[in-house]
Amino acid sequence: MNDQAKFQRMLEILMRLSGSYAYSVKQLAEDFDSSGRTIYRYLTTFKNAGFLLDNNNGYFRIDKKSPDYKDLSKLIHFSEEEAHILSRAIHLIDDESKFKNELYEKLYVLFDSDKAVNKIVKKESSENVIKLKGAIKNKEKVILKGYRSSNSDNIRDRFIEPFNFTSNYNYVWGYDPETKSSKTFKIARIKEVIITNKKWNHQKKHKQNEIDVFRISGTKNIPITLSLSLMAYNLLIEEYPLSEKDIVKKGDRYIFDGVVCDYSGVGRFVLGMMDQIEVTKSKEFKAFLNEKIKNKTF
Question: Which of 65, 188, 282, 295 stands 20 to 30 A from 263 (CA)?
Answer without folding.
Answer: 188
